[in-house]
Design goal:
Helix 4 crosses helix 7 and helix 5 packs across helix 6. Strands 5-6-8-7 form a 4-stranded antiparallel beta sheet, with helices on both faces. It has a two-stranded antiparallel ribbon with strand order 1-4. It has a two-stranded antiparallel sheet with strand order 2-3. It has 2 domains: 63 residues, 2-Layer Sandwich (Alpha-Beta Plaits), CATH 3.30.70.20; 175 residues, NADH Oxidase (3-Layer(aba) Sandwich). The two termini are 46 Å apart. By secondary structure, it is α+β, with helices and mostly antiparallel strands. It has 9 helices and 8 strands. The longest helix is centred in the middle third of the chain and has 20 residues. A hairpin with a 6-residue loop joins strand 2 and strand 3. InterPro entries: 4Fe4S_Fe-S-bd (IPR017896), 4Fe4S_Fe_S_CS (IPR017900), Nitroreductase (IPR029479), Nitroreductase-like (IPR000415). This is Nitroreductase family protein.
Length: 275
């Protein structure tokens, strides 16, 4: 059930909801908007109709328009966004202090607003909230690598992870997590063809907001490789569904280093399409 409702006292019959609906299931030509007969199943749950209604007359899925964040002119300028993007750096040295739980929750909830293919919203975010939780993850991961090494499973390029485990065990140097206090893993069902891309986009939203709040982030390919090729049992240990594919992983925390300027990127590869 879409639970599509119109407050007729507020509705101006502007038809914006019908015009904006990507599935074209709203009839706004005959006065008060209604869902076209037999078309409910075509709804992709984007809530565009709720978001576009200028008077807050429309509700869907039981959502109260008053509970939505209002669009205002108080958004970062283009120059501010450019500076944020260009000065963002991968952080590999973190302070011992934890990020406040309320801040973590805000970051995670904001990541849920990232776009997903066909608006499926199937990204699962698995996260630690405290350094104690993170320390347990660290211990479990390094122990799993040690077990794989003892069983002779770290051949070729994977032997590098045996070296990481060795320096952790003998010197306390944490190459994989960089001693970060927090971790977030984005996964989605393998049956979702957009799942990996959706997961990466979700973490990109997470990262930009985190950096705007002075929180440093690091995309963690090391742990992704461990979970996919060294110790696949870690997904189960972390309560990630067996049928989920890892999109990407990020560690984060308060940075222990402050950068003075952006780098000068040489990473642009452009193909201008001119037909």
């Amino acid at each position: 059930m879409l639970d599509f409702k119109i407050d007729e006292a507020l509705c101006t019959q502007c038809s914006l909801c019908a015009k904006e609906c990507p599935s074209l299931i709203i009839d706004g030509k005959s006065g008060i908007p209604v869902i076209k007969e037999g078309k409910e199943k075509n709804c992709i749950k984007c809530q565009h109709c709720l978001a576009v209604c200028p008077t807050g007359a429309l509700s869907i899925f039981g959502k109260n328009p008053e509970d939505s964040m209002a669009v205002t002119n108080e958004v970062p300028s283009a120059d501010e966004m450019e500076r944020l993007i260009k000065t963002r750096r991968s952080v590999r040295k973190f302070k011992k202090a934890e990020v406040e739980e309320a801040t973590i929750q805000k970051l995670i909830e904001s990541a849920a607003y990232a776009p997903t293919g066909h608006n499926k919203n199937q990204v699962l975010l698995s996260a630690t909230y405290t350094r104690a939780e993170m320390d347990k993850v660290r211990e479990v991961v390094y122990n799993a690598i040690k077990k794989a090494k003892e069983e002779g499973k770290l051949d070729g390029a994977l032997s590098l992870y045996g070296a990481f485990q060795h320096v952790w065990e003998t010197k306390g140097i944490d190459v994989i997590f960089r001693d970060a206090p927090h971790l977030i893993i984005a996964t989605a069902s393998a049956a979702n063809s957009n799942g990996v891309a959706d997961s990466v986009i979700s973490l990109s939203y997470f990262e930009l907001l985190a950096n705007s709040m002075g929180i440093g982030t690091l995309w963690n390919g090391f742990l992704k490789t461990v979970m996919e090729h060294v110790a696949t049992e870690l997904k189960g240990i972390f309560n990630i569904p067996e049928d989920h594919t890892i999109g990407y992983i990020m560690v984060y925390g308060l940075p222990a280093v402050k950068f003075a300027r952006s780098v000068q990127s040489e990473g642009l590869h452009l193909n201008r399409i001119q037909l």
